[in-house]
Each structure stands twice: as structure tokens, then as C-alpha cells.
Known about the structure:
Largest sheet: 8 strands, mixed
Radius of gyration: 28 Å
Number of helices: 21
CATH architecture of the domain at 337-517: 3-Layer(aba) Sandwich
Strand content: 5-15%
Strand order of the largest sheet: 3-4-2-1-5-6-7-8
Amino acid sequence: MNVCMVVQNNVTRDGRVMREANSLQRAGHSVTVLGLLDADAASPVEYLDSGVRIFRVFWLANAYRSLIWSALLRVLPVFAVIVVVLAAIAYGLKLLFAAHGPLAQGGLALMRFVRGAMAWSVLDAIYAVLVVLIAAALVYLIWRAARAYLGLFGTGARMRANEEDTIRRYAEALIKEGALDDADFPSVKSRIPSWVPDWLLAVTLEPLEWFGGNATRFTLLRYRAREMTEVAVRIKPDIVHCHDCLTLPTGVRIKKKLGIPLIYDAHEIYEAAATRMAGITDYYARVHKKYLKHVDGFIAVNDSAALYYHHAYPQTPKPVVIRNAIQLSPSEPYDGRLHDAADLPEDRRILLYQGGFSEGRGLPTLVRAAFLLPPNWSLVMMGWGPLAGQLKQIAAQAISRSGREGDQEKIRFIPPAPQKELKSWTQGATLGIIPYDGKMLNHWIATPNKLWEYPGAGVPLIVQPFPEMRRVVTTYKCGWVLPESLTASGIADLVASLSDEEIAQARLGCMRFIEADNWSARYEKRLLDLYAGFAGSGTHA
């Protein structure tokens, strides 16, 4: 089949997408991945060794041109309504304080009282009370409208009010794998009414994004979807495969235009992810509620996520669980590249974090832990992301306050490694850590790429006590679980407590885990079987 995958990044660092694309290509399918062109992308078009073709869509120019027309046709009328309302209020105030009329008498009486110019009569007091009541009523109506508006774009009230308790009950249910009643299932649902059009939702969310430093992200999504749809239609695929929530509307467009099956690959539980800015959680839930009914095949990242989607969105097809397992590959001798890049001596032990520097991953705590690590240990932060500046500032302040000689070597920040070379970099570490914050459901059930990338390089794990990660560590004896409460001292104390023999035994556990749970052994066949079920169903086969 001619397969079109759609992703909302430049594809370069997305190991899950590449594994799936390469497997499908090797199985005889023709795979094209549609991504986005950005500064980190190699080129607009790229061919991988497997034959997979990557198209990176340059969509911004047309999107911004369209946004101008959008402003003229949609935003300007909104401003016109605002101007009319303000004019009406101004005119009402003019009448209120005109020279004649009972309300004017009340207003003048109130002004005279404030100035203390004269004593009040009974009639003056009545007029003044009426003015105050009318003003209070107006303020109350405005407050109710503002509260309703903020509530419309807020996260689920139950999740926000007692999130940790909700997550613990959720995790307990997932561990027991017991059936959950839909009415009691603690999911986050969108409270955005179905009659609110997508374009209005996007325009409304844009000002909220300004405060986060990512202006126009949601407003431009519809233009991005249109551009990617046009490219996909020219490719004429037999099946479209969407990765992540934001690509789902694009996939539905492509499905409807070409009459082909749609596979949705949910990498996370987006409604309960770390990005909890006002509106975004509800936006994700809105997308799922509106578009999941169009999905023909569904992929979940693990059993816990599959359970969530089954109960939260019963219309979704039965999930096929494909975890973030890596390909089993032979290990080459370590060539020292991680130590060289971090400017550390070869005998230095490294606690490694690799991946995105983003909210909710416990990274500020991890950086502070670096300065509590035992002698001859350093923390290496290998990655990228919006928190990079904040994390470096935390490290600089800690070094400045301590004044201890050698603290400069306690932490290093280095760029992310190329996906093809990641194993050669990772194997320079002594331990790998996943310190994700446990305050959101998506992290409680997380099985990130790192859960396989560290052991695949022979590096034992330090993980949070969350159901999926804890199960891996305890089953295969390939690492250790942190205390319930994530603290800098807790991380450092765990590292200090480990003997050379314990680390060596955990390395053997890493081998057991990867040999038992790798891409080829378990998950590649699930993907190919899913596609086999759609063979011949596309209109362009």
C-alpha cells in the first residue's frame, strides 16, 4: 500500500515514527512521512536508507497570507461589535449623568455626598442607592460572563481540584486492570460546546498563547492542516496514519477527500499532559470527541493508555498496543564521545538525562541534585527544549552560591545526539534517569523512549514509582525506583547507595529486558497485522 504518515514536527528526532515507517517500508509498503520544515530540518525532501520518503511542508507563508484574510473576514467584525458595545455604554453614561432625569439626580446626589457639599435628603438617598444597585448588577453580570468564559477554556474541574488523588485512583485501577464504570472513570472531557466552530475556538485561544510565548500556534493549525492535506492528496495514498492529537483533523480531511482508511497513533494522553495552559487541555479533548469517530484503526502507546481511551472515548476502535520499544542491535565498544562532548575525564561516572527540556519532567529538581551527587559523579543533560535557559540558570546559581571547587564539573549541558547515533552516546553513562513529575495522569502511565534507550545501551534505569515504568524495573531488575516524593536529596542518596556490584547486576537486567521487549520481537508484527487488515480497502491501491 501507499502509506502517508502525518506528524507535527520535522521528523528528525521522532524515533517512534521512524521505527514504524521503516518497518512498513521493509514489509513492501511505500511510505511517505509528511512533517514540517523548520530550522533543524536537513532539507524539504529526504530519503532514508530504507527507502522511506520524508516531505517537510513549508506552510507558514501561505498560512500568514490566509491569516490576513481571516482577520478581515472574522476578526474585524468582532472588533466592530466591541466598538458598538463601547459606544452604547458611553451613550448610556452620557444619559445617566445628563442634566435631567431621575438617574442623573441619583448620580449627582452621590457625587455631592462624596464631596460632602450638602446633607442628603431621603429622595437623594433613594436615587443614590438605585445607581449603586444598577452598577453592582452590571459588575456582577460582567463577572459571571468572565467566569463562564474562563471556565469554558479551563481544564477539567475534577482533575484540577484534586488531581493527585484522581491520578492515584486511576493508577490503582490500571494496575489491577479491573473494569471501570464509565460514569466513575476519572477522565478529562472538554466543556467546549459542540456548536462552537473550530475557527472561532482557534482565534479565541491565540491571545492565551501570547502569554506562553508561542503566539498563533492554535490559530494557524487550520492553515497547516490545509497545506498538509493538499500535499497528501497529490501523493494519493491508500491509507493515512496520523501521529499525535494535533494531526488528527488533518488525517480526517485526507480520509474524506480520498475515501481511504485512517489510523490514529496516540503517543500520549493529551488531555492530561504536562502542558496545562488554559484552553489547551479542553482543545485536545474537543479534537478527540469530534474526530475519533472517524478513525478506522487505533494505536495506543501502552496498556494503560489503551484502557484510558477505551473508557473515555468508547467510539474508538479497539486499541492495538505498540510501545516505544527500540530495535535490538549489536553494541560497539564505547568510543568516549559522551565524555568528550561534556568535557569530562574518562573515569567520571555520568548520571544521564536525555530528551526534551520541558515542563512536568522534574528537571529543576534533577539539576539541583547534581550538586549533591557523590564525588566522581556528574549529571549530563543531553537535549533541548523551552526550559533550557531556566535549567542552566539554576545550575549557575547553585555553583555561584556554593563556591566549592569542582562544582563546575557536577553538571554539563550538551546538544541532543542524532537519532542514528543515540546508542553510541548513551552507553557512555553509568545510570540513566527518568524523573518525570507525577502530577499529571500522562506521566503516571508514561513509557517514554528513554525506558528502552537507556537499557538498550546497557545503562540501568532510575525511574519514578509510576505503574508502567516501575513494572519494567521490578520485573527485569534493570534499575531502581525513586521514593514517592521527588527531591534532589532523594535522587542523590539513591545514586550514592549503589555499589559497583549492584550496577553490574542491573546491566545484566538491561540485557534481559531489551532481549525480551524489543521492536522486532513484539511490536513490529502488531503494526504489520494492523495494516494487513486494511489491504485493498484504499481507493488508490
